[in-house]
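Weekly structure sync, notes
Attendees: PL (lead), two postdocs, one rotation student
Agenda item 3: pending single-chain targets
PL asked that the sequence for the first pending target be pasted directly into the notes so everyone works from the same version. It is reproduced below exactly as submitted, 819 residues in total.
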Amino acid sequence: MQNSPANEWYPKAFLGVVTALGLAALALGLFPYLSTDPWKFLLHFVLAVFSACFRISLPTITGTLTINFLFILIGIVEFSLSEVLVIATAMTALQCVLAQERRPTTSKILFNVAVVALATTATYLVYWDPHFAQAGVPASAMQVTAAFVLYVMTTFPIAIAIALTERRSIVRTWRECSLWTGPYYLAGAAVVILLSATTSMLGWQMVLFVMPVAYLITRSYQLYAARIEDGLKHMQQMADLHLRTIEALALAIEAKDTTTHDHLQRVQVYAIEIAKRLDLPADQIEALRAAALLHDIGKLAVPEHIISKPGRLTPEEFEKMKIHPIVGAEIIEQARFPYPVAPIVRAHHERWDGEGYPDGLAGEAIPIGARILSVVDCYDALSKDRQYRRGMPMVEALAMIEQDAGRSFDPAIVRILAANHVEMEELARRRFPARTRLSTEVRVERGLAPAAGYEGEGGETSSAGESRSPLDFLTSIASARQEVQSLLELSENLGSSLSLNETFTMLAQRLKRIAQYDSMAIYAVREGKLLCQFVTGENFRLFRSLEIPVGQGLSGWVAESQQPILNGNPSVEPGYLNDPSKFSTLRSALAVPLLNDKQRVVGVLSLYASGRDFFTSDHLRLLQSISGKLAQCMVNAMKYEMAETGATTDYLTSLPNARGLVAQMHNEIARCVRTGGGFEILVCDLNGFKQINDRFGHLEGNRVLQQFSKLLKDSCHDGEFVARMGGDEFVVLLPARSALGLDEKIAQLHHFAREAGQTVVGQPMLSVAVGSSTYPVDGQEADPLLAIADERMYRAKAAMNAALSGRPATPAAASPLVQ
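Predicted structure, written out during the meeting:
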C-alpha cells in the first residue's frame, strides 16, 4: 500500500512542532541561568552524565531502560529550572551520541532533547506550583506527582511520533513501547522521597551514594537481562530449526518429484510477496510460508510412476494424483503447526468457480492462502520445463493465468501478480540462486551385501540390565540414532488408528525391539480400578484377569501417585500370586502412568521381565516420552468406541438403527455369497401409532415403541436381526435357517403390535403393515432390497387403509403384497 502525501506530512509536522516548542522551552528555562550552589550542581551533573552511559536493552520489549529520569527527579527537587534543564538535555544528547547500533540523525537528536526539555519544564512547574504548598500537600505526594507528570510527558510525544510514522494506533504504540516503564518511574519517586529525607538529616553529600547503588542495580539487571536474552536466543534457534525442518521436508518432496526442483522455493517467494501486498496477518503469512514448501508433500502417497510419467495422466492416474492435497493436509495436521497450514495444503487445487478438488470450494470459501498458492503454483509450473512439455516464457504464462482469472483463480490475486511479477522474479533469483540437485542418481560402490541389522553388528551385545563396557563413540552415535528412530516410529504410529487393539499391538511390537520385555500390560482406570485393556507375553491370561484397586500393588501405586516405578516386583500386583504354591519367572517391572492433558491418570503401562533389575533409565525415559501421546490415544479410542456404539444404536429402543442395519445386511450378503444361501427382509410400519400420540401423548407413544421393540428383540432366534429404521418403522432380517416361516413371522408381528398397544394404553389400537423382499431374487445389494420391501409395505398400508374406509383398493394397492 502506498503512503498518501498527507500521511507523510503528519509525522514531519508533529516532529517540527514538538522540536520548536521544546527548544523554546529550553531557551526560556536557561535564561536567566540561576545556580545557588555550583559545587553541589557540578557533582550532580557529573553523576548524571556518567549514569547516561548505562543503558539496558530488555528482551521482548521495544526500547531500553535508563536511569536518566531518576537524576531529573532529584534535580527538580534540589535545583533551579535552568540547572535541571542542563542536566536533562546533556544526558539525553549524550545517550543519542553514544548509541551503538543505529545512531539517530540530527533532527531526531533535536526532537529527543526537545521532548525532555518540555517534560522537565512541565514537571518542574507542577512540582513547584505554589498552590500545592498553600494547600498543604505533602512533599512525598508532590514527588510522586512529579514522577507521573515526567512519565506522561516523556513517553507520549515519542509514542505519537512512532505511531504517525508507522501509521499505527497511538494508544497501542504507547502501550507496547512505554507502558512497561511506568513502575520504574514509580520506583524512582520512592528513591527521591528516601533521598530527600536522608539529605535533610545528613546533608546533600548523600547523593554520592546514589551512583554506587544505581550501578549495582544496573549491573545486576544487565546480568539478569543477559540470561533472559540467552534463553530467547535459544528459543529463536529452535524456531529456526523448525523452519529448517520444514525445508528438509521440502527436499524430501524434491527427491520424490524431480519436476519440483527449485519450484517450492520460488513459489514461497511469490506467495509471501503477494500476501504482504494484501496486508495479511502475520499468522497467515507464516502459514503460507510453510504451506508453500509443503503443499506437495502428499505426493509421497502417490506412486512414483504417476508422478514421473512423461506425458498426460490417464483418468485413473489423475484420480490417484488427486488424493495428494488430502494426504498432504493429513500429514501436516500431525505436525500441529501453531498456524493454519493444513487448510491451505488441502485447498490449493480448488478453483474460484468451484470446479476444483478435493472439496469443490468456490470463491472466498477457499482459504486466502490456498488462493494465493494456486495462482503462483500454476504460474511457476507453466514457466518451467516439465517431462511432457517445454516451459513457457513468463509473459505467455502470465497471459494464461489472466485468461483463467475469475474461473480458476481469484482475480484480485492475479492482478497483484501481473503488476509485480518482474520484481518477484528478480527477488526469487537473488534469494535462491541455482543449486545442485539432491544426489538421487549416485551409485554407491561400497557395501557388498545387505547388513543383518543393528543387533549383533560391530561386536557382542549385552542384555539390558547387565553391566556394559565403555562404548566407543561410533556405537554411542548408533545407539542414539536407534533411540531417535524408535521414538520417531512410535510417535508416527501412535494415534494413526482409533482402534485400541491396533494401537496397542503396534506399540507392543515396537517396544519389544527396544526393551526386550517378557510381558506387557496396559491398564485403564475404571471406577477406581485398573482393568487390563491389552496384554501380551508370559502369563497373559493371569494379567488379563487382574482388577487392581488404585493405590494397591505396583501398578495401582503408579496410578495413585502418578510416579513411575523402575525395576519393581511384579508379584506384588493384587491377585497375581495370591497362591503361595504359584511360581513366576518375572522378576522386574517398569510401570509409568498415562496422564491426559488435564494431568489425570487414565491408565498405566507396565512392562515385565524375568531378569532382575532388567530395565534401565533409558527404557524409563523412552516410555515417559511417549506416555502422554499414548494416554491421548487411549482417550480418543475410547471416545471413538463410545461414539461408534452410539452411531449404530437407536437411543430410544436400544435396537440397531439404520446404519447398524445396513452393516448387518452387508455381512449377511457376504455370508450368502460364500454359502450360496439367501434371506428375507421384512419392513413393517405400525398403523394407528399417530392416533396413540394424538390421544395419549408422545411419552406414551415412546413407551409403545419400546414395548414393541422389546417383543421383537425377545423373539429373535437362529440369526434373526431386528432394527428400527426411524419413527414407527422396523425391519426384521430372516436368514434362511430361521425356525419361523415368512407367514408365521408376519402373523407374529401383527400379534406383537396388538400386544404393545394393549399393554401400554389398554387398547389394541395398533396393527402392522408389512412388505418383504428376498435376497437374491429381488436384489443383491442392501439399498435395492430395502427399497423394494419399503415400497411393498406402503402398498400394503394403502390397501389396509382402503379396506378400513370402505373404498375400493387402487390397482397399485391391489397388487400381490405381503400383509
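Discussion points:
- The longest helix spans residues 210-256.
- The chain has 30 helices and twelve strands.
Action: rotation student to compare against the earlier draft before next sync.
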